[in-house]
Amino acid sequence: MRVVQLIDSLSAGGAERIAVTLANSLSTRIEGSYLCVSRKEGILKSKLHPNVSYLFLDKRGTLDFSALLRFRRFVKQNKIDIIHAHTTSYFFATLLKILTPTVKLIWHEHHGNRVTTKRIHNKSLYLCSYFFGAIIAVNEALSKWCKKELTTKKVVFVPNFVESFDNSDEIANHDKLIVCLANLRVPKNHLNLLKAFKIVHEKFPDWKLQLVGNDFNDAYSEGVKNYISENNLETAVEVMGGISDTEVVLRKASIGVLSSDSEGLPMALLEYGASGLVVVTTKVGECEKVISTFGKTVPSNNSNALSEALLHYIEDKNARLRDAQRFREHILSTYSGNAILPQLIEIYKN
Questions:
Q1: pTM score, whole prediction
Q2: Over the stretch 260-286, which tens digit does the pLDDT of each residue have?
Q3: Other C-beta atoms within 10 Å of 2: how many?
């Protein structure tokens, strides 16, 4: 079995991380594992294992036939059986499927806010879904949406997964640091987090907050930075931008947080758990199911509830360390490669 993961870019986003993780993990489990990036390379390229064959197409525009033919040649030369297309790469993958009908096409949907739309808002996706052999959705709500709004008969909910960053069994007492691993985009609602952290900072000025994720230097980013400046939080809040080695930052932190208004199944939660962080997140997408009873979930866009949950773990060190340990064990038993990959490989086979 030979499978290529197809993704638009290698920026430090959740879909990009799972594409790289899949390519790496499958390389020791199937005959051939490949990764194709269509539009833009990025910092996650450095995380790709040497035994994963890699292709960058540098695609210019939606209908770049030169890039399409290069991808077709790559697929034929490597005798690839399955194209595993992530998020918006489905259209390019469908064009390849039309050119090479014997190749199987699987679409992997990561974007939780898709469920707020209808078929009429997704005309190209609807048409392309006739060519999908299967759809993988990262949460139950997305799975139900795909079954209702698209034509593909086989739709399967498969959670994201993560490999352990830390081989130690015990959770360490990390720094007085809260980390938010999320690109500076509207659905992540960083202002909600900053309002909550302002309350935390007034009671515990020695605690810090790091915002780790791509900074697109747009109006949203400007609003985040202005709030930090206007509320004198410059010494307590660091906007780090996107980084490839997130585990370096996570190993230092004590609390992982997400304040999103919508999610699929965020890789950030899994990476928090694998790194031994206790977690506070909003009740969106698959977050509450992932957290279970091993962390705190709060309503979205409620900074007071978010601050109360953060303060609970800051004030109660024993609870913080206990729940971090339990959450890590939960993630590694339920959302590890050993738990998820057999299900994915079975989808490939069928």
A1: 0.88
A2: 999 999 999 999 999 999 999 999 999
A3: 17
